[in-house]
Amino acid sequence: MRIAFSSVSGPDDGSYWSGTPLFMKRHLAMQFDELVHIGPLQLVWQPFKQKHSIYDKMLRKTYIWELEPLVHQYLSMQAARLLKARGRIDLIFSPGSFPYPNAFLETDIPVVFWADASFAGLVEEHPGYRHICEENIWAGHALQQRILDKTTLAIFSSDWAAKTALDRYEFDDNRVAVVPFGANLTVQPPSLEALPAILEQRTSSECRLLFIGRNWIEKGGPFAIDVLSELVSRNIDAKLWVVGCELPKDAVNERLSARVVNKPFLNKHVESDAEQLGELLTASHFLIFPTMGDCFGMVICEANAYGVPVLAHRTGGVASIIRDGQNGFLFAKPQQATDYADCIARLFSDKVTYGELCRTSRLEFQNRLNWTTAVDRVRVLIESL
Questions:
Q1: At residue 333, does pLDDT exceed 90?
Q2: Which domains are seen in the chain, by residue range?
Q3: For residues 352 and 252, what is the distance between their CA atoms, to the nearest angstrom?
Q4: Mapped to the 3 state alphabet, what secondary structure does 155-189 carry?
Q5: pLDDT-derived band of residue 275, with 50, 70 and 90 as boundaries?
Q6: What is the dihedral of CA 30, 157, 90, 150, to 10 degrees?
Q7: If you average pLDDT over residues 113-135, what whole number do you get?
Q8: How far apart are CA 295 and CA 311, in angstroms?
Q9: Tell me: the pLDDT tens digits for 56-110?
Q10: Which class for 256: exposed (0-12), middle (13-18), buried (19 or more C-beta within 10 A)?
């Protein structure tokens, strides 16, 4: 089978969408006879700069230029030209749906996409869409329906994402599948057999929390500080590592300043940075993921790969990744920092229960939340078309 991997990003772009299309493509290439890349595709945003300014400064609304139909039309035009140049293609495969190269593509070739959300789900859950303008809402729903109309199989990474698509748009449920993404890791995580030795290295005197996210506010950074503060007030020797974003100057008070370590950015595709991230995951007791709204949460898979349980708000696709008591715990929104602290304190004081949670967290990665397993399931779905 000759598959065209049609993506806005380049074939080796590890920065786009946390590297998800890159990992998708690599593992699909291992499963099929031939995978040809359609991309990178040019995104034209300059004509919409003035419109963005008007909405932002005058109307106090969020305007997202990636939802402009003209952007998708231009992407489809580029994709059509590249597809023609590639010769025979049996199937077109695309990661994500906004921006999307196939919305206006005229073809008889089956089209499959693998996304973490429908547009309806983004409007419902994602913080960046909370104040979206009416023009975007109209265009986004119309584009999503058009995308589904032209799709042979829609694969979503969570039950939540699939449900929002089926509830809002006209689409047969027998053309929808749910397959979680895998962990975007560039280094091999420790094996399950190595976990007991790792747990011995996780000191029982200092509780190490890890927070990873590019957007401090959206990912719930202030809440993570509140959890740390609550633990310290209970005389638990706790520390918090913040990775992926620059801490705001007023984020941490003087009492906690020595207990918070900030590593603003670690590039997984740089060997030394990937090793640092691996060391942090190895040493951490818990990943705190109190996101305000998330479609999936790739970092959950990555933490589980190192046997690190995750505490998170029950939001969006996160609820499809975390199974209570297996690879972490979910908390309903809104939530109090004391509830997180209660859970952490209980597990941190019970070495046996904590060790078993780490083991089942690693098993969730091994059995479900890795790219090899995920793409193997996708291969079966594609071959059944």
A1: no
A2: 2-182+370-383 (3.40.50.2000), 192-367 (3.40.50.2000)
A3: 33
A4: EECCHHHHHHHHHHCCCCHHHEEECCCCCCCCCCC
A5: very high
A6: -170
A7: 93
A8: 16
A9: 888 899 999 999 999 999 999 999 999 999 999 999 999 988 889 999 999 999 9
A10: middle
